[in-house]
Amino acid sequence: MYFQLLLFLFVAILLMIWVKWVERQSITSLGFFQKRKAFKEIAKSWGFGSLIISLSFALTYLFGGVYFTDMDFSLLIILYVLSLIPFWFIQSGTEELLTRGWLLPLLNRRFNLALAVGVSSGLFGLMHLLNAHVTFYSILCIILSGIVMTLYALKRDNIWGVSGLHVA
Predict the structure, then answer these.
(1) pTM
(2) For residue range 40-50, what is the model confidence (pLDDT) as tens digits?
(3) What's the rounded Cα separation, in Å, for the pair 114 and 139?
(4) What sign for the dihedral angle of Cα 7, 85, 13, 31?
(5) For 66-101, b where at least 16 C-beta lie within 10 A, e where not — what string?
(6) Where is the CAAX prenyl protease 2/Lysostaphin resistance protein A-like domain (predicted)?
(7) Which of 10, 72, 113, 131 is the most exposed place for a label (fewest CB within 10 A)?
(8) CA dist., res. 12 & res. 39, Å (int)
């Protein structure tokens, strides 16, 4: 699993090389390197995303949509999950880099904003086709959340916040 997650880092580096040497654009154009307080932006959005996930899980549990058959909260399991968090930042940050940092402005320059939002969010959904237990409904929800996150990225003028939200 760690190797698969590290592949995302390789993709991110390749994209930055592409932008710098082929498109001859500054890497700052990708939306990661704006001079806002990046750590604060990530922390706020990760916290908000974690709250949303926790609330939706709690409500699903309370209404009988999910139940526990066995739970293992051993130290080993907790350490394993904690060890994955940096890799989740790499994975989700790379997806945001591709769809909202690179593709969105590229399409917006060549066509228009509505098409750019639709296509980049559609690609964001397609990137999740290999998720476990994927359905038409789950992909549709991912595309719609992609649209919302795109609007958030446009409002904040960077992709730090959506990257933190995506990690959650």
Answers:
(1) 0.87
(2) 889 999 999 99
(3) 20
(4) positive
(5) eeeeeeeeeeeeeeeeeeeeebebbbbbbbbbbbbb
(6) 80-167
(7) 72
(8) 19
